[in-house]
Amino acid sequence: MTGKQVVSTSEAPAAIGPYSQAVKAGDLLFFSGQLALDVASGELVPGGIAEQTEQVMANIGAILKAAGLDYDSVVKTTIYLLDLKDFSVVNEIYGRYFNVDSAPARATIQVAALPKQALVEIEGIARVS
After folding, report:
1. Which domain of life is it from (predicted)?
2. Domains plus CATH for the chain?
3. Closest C-alpha among 126, 35, 44 to residue 81
4. What's residue 123's pLDDT?
């Protein structure tokens, strides 16, 4: 036994490479970076940063649900942005998913490029209770 369990759901986009949607290890769930991919088409949702962020958060929610968790379980995230000028829009949408008194730790980083020419990607760690 490897001490880890792959978590997968058809309610979130399938991995586009050799990685899992999420992995449980001990009392932690590590969810892979989520792009704004539509589950049905596998393509980026139309629109800009707001639409992409909403889809990313929905994809994360589907993975958390598949693991028997919710947004309150998330303890750390990393947000990758193509342009830090989008920070306030992403921050506002992201903030709707977390209780301000128990929001996860977070880092936000501007990157040169993201897969599929996405504008935002979010990965994280959740606590399995």
Report:
1. Bacteria
2. 4-127 (3.30.1330.40)
3. 35
4. 98
